[in-house]
User: What shape does this take?
Amino acid sequence: MDIAVLSDKLNQTLSTLRYGENPAELYEPIRYIMSLGGKRIRPLLVLLAAKMYDEDVENALLPAAAVEVFHNFTLMHDDIMDKAPLRRGQQTVHEKWNANTAILSGDVMLVRAYQLLFGIAPDKLATVLQKFSETAAQVCEGQQIDMNFEQREQVSIDEYIQMITLKTAVLLGFSLELGAILQGAPEEDAEHLKAFGNNIGIAFQLRDDLLDVYGDKAKFGKQVGGDILSDKKTFLMLTALEQANPQQLDVLTCWRHQTNAAIALEKVEAVTAVYNALDLRQQTEEQIDLYFQKALQHLCAVQVPDARKAALRGLAMQLMERDS
Assistant: This one.
């Protein structure tokens, strides 16, 4: 069973989910954001981890769907906080409806995510719910820390890595751990898979930071240069502030908090020019590879035959090489 087959099974499961009907204004935004697709990486990770221990992954389909519903809940709320106009190349929910509707619809998605976990075998349910709840809280902690950074002039790169670990990476780690738990994998294997996912998650977010500046808008699905325009403290910006010479620092400082839409393109070009001068594209690629190699070390430690790890390793390679 390859990734394409697992994806088909997952998409079929997601297509059967029923979130509710009335009031339509509450449930239509959920169906809308879930219909936008995406790579479905997190639920795929659940299934790939489960498949490493048992070819039959039927018992992992609804829990995998729960992870995807939860992930889209976080995106819906993040887009409100970031005032993001686009998600996967389409209007964000708060733009298409309004912020209040997006908040409430997101709340229901969190509830539905928990409900999708209730079918897990009783001997595993409490463990999964505890770990899922811990992960959900960590994702919220990461988002709050990210917002805190907006009010701080000084943020270290180590602090940034910790923030993206919470905001992005832990859900990938949990997804793999969940798949292992569902199939009764050894605890040590589940921990290694979680660590694999965490490191892949950090590398994934660093790739996202890179694509925000250097990505193709048609492929990226979000506004290229959006992080620069919103003055987000990404890995590229923090590294630039750390390494810039006085003249470059003046450029970065001058453009911060410049929010006039008429000069948005000029701002992106000016900041990107500093990034280019500091060779930040290459530096970021090196960091991505560093975390990817850490991830592979944990995957190697998982006590199953290499052939059973091949699909997971292949997906990780695709994530690291993506251009969207």
Summary: The longest helix spans residues 122-150.
